[in-house]
Amino acid sequence: MTTPTDVATAGKMKVAARDECCALFAGPVGIADAERIASLLKALSDPTRLRLLSHVAAQGCQSVCACDLTETLGISQPTVSHHMKKLVDAGLLTREQRGRWAHYSVVLSTFAELRAFLDID
User: Fold this and answer.
1) Residue 115 contacts by C-beta under 8 Å, 6 or more apart in sequence?
2) Can you tell me the distance from the alpha carbon of 107 to that of 84, in angstroms, rounded to the nearest whole number?
3) What gap in Å lies between CA 54 and CA 31, rounded to an integer?
4) Helix (H), strand (E) at residue 76
5) Which domains are delineated in the chain?
6) Which of 19, 25, 33, 109: disulfide with 29, CB 3.0–4.6 Å?
7) pLDDT at 68 over 80
8) Could you tell me which residue ranges the HTH arsR-type domain spans (predicted)?
């Protein structure tokens, strides 16, 4: 026998399930946007690049010298250069040459673009 409490509980479960559904706010993406986002996500799909990027992003608006990344993260200079080039080419970081060292900064607009794409309601 179904009681009023059972009916109320079932109704709450349906509402809760509906509230847990999600959708991309902006709707489906077009070909050009999908290619752009895929290239950003591809650049982020490497653990070494994520470590490097997180180190640069942790500095806020200050640039980070490549010379500081090798020892801090225990990564060789050629490896740092290779991965940083991938992040720069993807548009996630900017590179500025100062003397013999490159300095890197986060591109805030690119992260805003990723954030907007990943914003699921």
Assistant:
1) none
2) 13
3) 29
4) none
5) 29-118 (1.10.10.10)
6) 33
7) yes
8) 29-121
Judged on CB neighbours under 10 Å (0-12, 13-18, 19+), 63 is middle
Whole-prediction pTM:
0.75
Judge whether 63 and 103 are in contact, CB under 8 Å: yes
Q: What is the mean pLDDT of residues 13-35?
A: 67
Neighbours of 68 (CB within 10 A): 16
Structure tokens at 107: 């591109």
Task: Tell me how far CA of residue 106 lies from CA of 8, 21, 36, 44, 58, in angstroms.
Answer: 51, 33, 17, 13, 10
What are the tokens at 65?
């010298």
Which amino acid is residue 66, in one-letter code?
A: A
Q: Tell me the per-residue pLDDT of 30-50, one tens digit each, with 9 for 90 and over.
A: 899 899 999 999 999 999 999
Backbone angles phi, psi at 74, to 5 degrees: 65, 40
Distance (Å, rounded) from C-alpha 42 to C-alpha 48? 13
